[in-house]
Amino acid sequence: MIGNSFKSVLLHLRFPFSLFLLPIFLFAIATVPMLNNAHAFWVFIILHLLVYPASNGYNSYFDKDEGSIALLKTPPKVNYALYVCSVCLEWLSVALSFLISWQFAVCVLVYNSLSKAYSHPKIRLKKYPYLSFLTVFIFQGAFIYYSVYFAVAEVNFGFTADVFLAGIICSCLIGASYPLTQIYQHEEDRKRGDLTLSMKLGYSGSFIFSGLLFLAGTILMGFFCYRRLALADFWVFLACGSPVIGFFSAWFAKVIQDKKNANFTYMMQMTLISSSMMLIYFTWLCIWG
């Protein structure tokens, strides 16, 4: 019984899902002028082993999904241990953040609070299509980039135009994937009374919206690289983005032919391809960019 409960908690924390958000951390590492290695290590631990898993677990506990969710095709039933574990990880992340700075601890606290508000039934930002999108767009994208950037900087050079632009790029890339992660859950979200952005946009609208945001992110990345006199970095970005565009286009064509193709399997393939290619690009940027 205890073993099953522990396994359920571990699965719902979805630690591997943290890798999908790793490119933002790597982008900050790659662009900070002077890196504090110790801070970078602790920021990685706090975000990817505590904050994001806590958010996943908290979301799963209140959603109580019966159908597939990210990385879990058949999620086990949630239990109270998942809630307790999520809250413990959340507050541990805040406590450890003070090893870096009180400012970073405040950023982590803000992120954790919004993560709760996203799922908790008394607030549940998730049921408001535009508000939930803006929450993810800003706080999983630009907010995390800025939080990491200033936490790992050995010297604070201030909020420059390049720093601002890089955060907007992160938001565009995160926002581009957002409606596609909801596209297979319309029925289950409708049963819970949630009105997601994907439901509002419809199947075709979700793809068009995502494509436009990815295009915006790509254009801004080109401008960012141009400002830094590093156009070679942009060509590598385009090369890494081409498999993403290819699969996205093929999936969109399938959904136009049959709405049943807007399913969990294709969504996970899309997520894995896009996350893997961005992970490759930003790792390359850290080492050779």
Question: How would you characterize this protein structure?
Answer:
The chain has 289 residues and is an all-alpha fold. The longest helix is centred in the last third of the chain and has 31 residues, at 197-227. It is globular. The chain is 74% helix and 0% strand. 40% of the residues are buried. It has one domain (2-287). The protein is built from eleven helices and no strands.
Give the key terms.
globular; 289 residues; 74% helix; mainly alpha; 11 helices
Q: Gyration radius, to the nearest Å? A: 19 Å
The count of β-strands is 0
Pick out the low-confidence regions. Answer: none
The biggest sheet, with number of strands, parallel, antiparallel or mixed sense and barrel status, is: none
The rough form would be described as globular
Quickly give the structural class. Answer: mainly alpha
Ends apart, CA distance between termini: 50 Å
Helix content: over 70%
Q: What's the order of the H and E elements?
A: HHHHHHHHHHH
Strand fraction:
under 5%
Count of separate structural domains: 1
Mean pLDDT: 91
Number of helices in the DSSP assignment? 11
